[in-house]
Amino acid sequence: MKKISIAAALLLPQAALAHVGHHDEGQFLSGLSHPLGGADHLLAMVALGLLAAQMGGRALWALPLTFVGSMVAGGLAGFGGLSFPAVEPMILASVVILGALVAMAARLPLAAMVPGVALFGMAHGWAHGAEGPAAGLAAYAAGFAVATLALHGVGIGAARILERGTALRALGGGTAAAGLALAMVG
Questions:
Q1: Closest Cα partner for 74 from 91, 57, 61, 89?
Q2: pLDDT 10s digit of each residue in the chain, 186 long?
Q3: Span of the secretion signal (predicted)?
Q4: Phi-psi region of 86 (alpha: psi -120 to 50; beta: other; left: phi over 0)
Q5: Pair 180, 93: CB distance under 8 Å
């Protein structure tokens, strides 16, 4: 539990620095680094991996692929200038809700989870696309998709190490709490 508290404390100052830097180059590395630059994105993407592993079965691949596919679609919408009302509250809600689902070891039907995950993916993608480069969108999108899949993989790996036990649920609770803290800071 002490390690979880330390990790949360280290991530919270990043909220003020979320998405710093310039994405003008439109390169793969810029897209790759973008999800890593904000605690909100980082926490939600790892939490989704935790949840997918905790649920197991088809959720192990369906939830991450749904998130990434919707994120790319949302990225195109954000880049194209389409509006997404309350995108930041939706992103913060994704952190809290995904963390809470892990903490509760929720066993919702996959058919109920996929639309919610798709909505969260769209919100995260919209933010990436709206903040993205004016040129080189394909390389940038590929970068943020790869980074997101890697973060999902980190969550899946952590869940497998923790073996769906109390520590995994505590990690989910810590994620939800960090999401609430980010909401209060922002």
A1: 91
A2: 444 443 444 444 343 334 444 444 558 988 888 888 889 999 999 999 999 999 999 999 999 999 999 999 999 999 999 999 999 999 999 999 999 999 999 989 999 999 999 999 999 999 988 888 877 888 999 999 999 999 999 999 999 998 868 999 999 999 999 999 999 986
A3: 1-18
A4: left
A5: no
